[in-house]
Design a protein that fits this description.
The chain has 585 residues and is α/β, with parallel strands linked by helices. It is globular and about 70 Å long. The relative contact order is 0.11.
């Protein structure tokens, strides 16, 4: 059978794929993309550096994927090695050189010219090494060694599994997002933290400086017009008068530059922000509602797992990422729930500029729950206390501490994203523990966004929602006792399934948990009935947001709006638009 591929498979630049600037909210001119062909080898986990490599791998596609050119699993007792040579260009002369990895799953050690540059643990968080003292003029050798136990370890891995089945998918191991070099001054801007405040008409910008400085200057632009310029120091409240507010309907972005100067040398970065506010307010009937810019705003969303048949968790191209966002918006959706995955910064940039709200899940870890806790209890509104660590497979304190560390690293790495309106620490009890306490800590850490502390199951009555998942069974409003005054969100539902011959990951294999319909007409009609008979009446009773499952099929799970290859829209376009126009306060 021919392999499943999206329309972007043949558009991948094999010399340097995904070569767009990787970090749009802290952009510099001096940089070099290190994506492309690497030598690779798979050895025993305890082995040293290989004397001979097995072949070529295309970075940043995971070794399990077709686009990597390898398509092999990395087993828990194995080590994956990468090697390439890069040239330090003249533009890096006299600068500090930073080596950035956007994501490497799961544990890695990095060497430059035979000397260790650093180690990192965690499959989804970007990390950086200063390699200035390790780099030569001219050619340099980069070596990376990676181990990944996948589902044989307790780490945060989402839906990755060594033997895919049902809604557990092919694993992602090794380098799976962009690798790049950046040249900075001796004293430079390390990071920015941006918080808009529409009520006071200002934006707060914190500048973290690496090293000393004589001055920091910020200039803000509304289009081509400069609306502010001045020396600010590391913390500034900058006026944005008569602000043009960001929303999915008008995703306007202000741009700005930050220039740090020391002894006549200047480090300059470009960035952007959107003036918007997320809050909870009561409507005229006293019902709590999600609000955008101080007005109730109904969120019509989709579950978005971000998988691709030829490249796993890595989008084949930047255009492929844009397609999913732009097409869902065209069909009338205004929100995507990024499910159990963190995307590269460019994905959030596209949501920011195109106008798509985002709920950001933390990546789950631990083991699957006992079927009684995972399937039976939730449908009878039985919620288990999640300080029973053994029940939730979170017995060891070090497992819990690693989760919390990576959760707040994820928040830090995405804090400036305009489109993210909600953090989701736990989903359906997978590796859940102390969800109310953690939800409250997330809310205290970032009060500017919503928190769905325990999405779907095992509600601990934490912030901010009464969050419901409902498949197959009818969608019914919860009682006031269960909501405890919180807004109600249907954070997963539907999942109606349809098989499209010729567009299946494996012919004859489907994940059969969801309701199935034989053709596009039948699927579309039942999708319409579900929304008009159950969802729309629920809005008047407190429903504030919906997350239909899902953007596309994923492997053998066939409940997408699109087929896995993004070639067939499985529900009639006019039905999707009609339903979305009807879902509102």
């Amino acid at each position: 059978m021919e392999k499943m591929r999206t329309p972007w498979f043949d558009k991948v630049d094999k010399d340097c794929p995904l070569s767009e600037y990787p970090r749009p909210q802290l952009e510099r001119d001096c940089w070099l993309c290190l994506n492309g062909s690497y030598d690779y080898a798979i050895t025993d986990k305890s082995a040293g550096k290989p004397e001979k490599y097995d072949g070529k791998i295309l970075v940043p596609y995971a070794i399990e994927s077709e686009l990597s050119g390898v398509q092999k699993a990395l087993l828990p007792d194995q080590m994956l090695w990468y090697r390439r040579v890069f040239t330090r260009g003249a533009e890096f002369e006299g600068k500090r050189i930073l080596l950035h990895f956007t994501s490497v799953d799961y544990k890695c050690t990095v060497w430059v010219n035979g000397k260790e540059a650093g180690k990192h643990t965690g499959g989804y968080i970007p990390f950086t090494f200063d390699i200035t003292d390790l780099v030569n003029s001219g050619e340099n050798e980069l070596v990376v060694a990676v181990t990944d136990p996948t589902d044989k370890g307790p780490q945060q891995r989402g839906k990755q599994i060594l033997k895919p089945m049902g809604f557990w998918y092919t694993a992602t191991s090794g380098i799976w997002q962009t690798v790049w070099l950046e040249g900075v001054e001796e004293n430079y801007i390390e990071s920015l933290k941006i918080l808009p405040d529409i009520d006071s008409g200002k934006v707060h910008i914190d500048v973290k400086a690496a090293g000393e400085y004589d001055s920091i200057r910020i200039s803000v632009f509304e289009g081509d017009k400069e609306i502010f310029s001045g020396e600010t120091g590391e913390s500034a409240d900058i006026p944005v008068e008569n602000a043009r507010l960001w929303s999915p309907e008008d995703p306007f972005l202000y741009t700005f530059t930050v220039t740090l100067t020391k002894d006549g040398a200047s480090d300059k970065v470009k960035s952007y922000f959107g003036m918007r506010k997320f809050s909870i307010m009561k409507d005229g009937k006293g019902i709590p509602r999600l609000a955008l810019n101080n007005k109730p705003y109904f969120q019509r969303g989709l579950l978005d797992q971000g998988y691709w048949p030829e490249s796993g968790l890595t989008a084949p191209t930047d255009e492929a990422m844009i397609f999913d966002i732009a097409e869902m918006k065209r069909l009338g959706f205004n929100m995507l729930r990024k499910h159990i995955k963190k995307e590269p910064a460019r994905w959030y940039y596209h949501c920011d500029r195109l106008g798509m709200l985002v709920w950001q899940d933390m990546i789950s870890g631990g083991k699957a729950l006992n079927p009684v806790y995972a399937g039976v209890y939730p449908n009878f509104n039985i919620h288990v206390k999640d300080n029973q660590y053994k029940v939730f497979h979170r017995e060891k304190p070090e497992w819990r501490e690693e989760f919390k560390k990576e959760l707040f690293e994820l928040i830090d790495s995405l804090y400036n994203s305009v489109s993210i309106c909600c953090w989701v620490p736990f989903n359906e009890g997978w590796g859940q523990f102390d969800a109310k306490e953690i939800g409250e800590k997330v809310k205290a850490y970032d009060p500017s966004r919503f928190v769905d502390h325990a999405s779907g199951w095992h509600d601990q009555k934490g912030p901010d929602f009464k969050s419901i998942h409902k498949y197959v069974l009818p969608v019914n409003p919860p009682t006031a006792r269960r909501t405890r005054g919180r807004p109600i969100v249907l954070s997963e539902f539907g999942g109606y399934q349809n098989s499209v011959p010729g567009h299946l990951w494996k012919e004859g294999k489907t994940f059969g948990m969801y309701l199935k319909y034989p053709d596009k007409d039948s699927l579309s009609e039942h999708y319409r009935r579900l929304h008009f008979n159950q969802i729309k009446p629920f809005i008047a009773k407190g429903l504030c947001a919906t997350v239909y499952t899902q953007v596309s099929d994923v492997e053998c799970e066939l409940n997408g709006i699109f087929t896995y290859d993004r070639k067939v829209l499985k529900i009639h376009e006019n039905v999707l638009k009609e339903v979305n126009e009807a879902l509102d306060f």
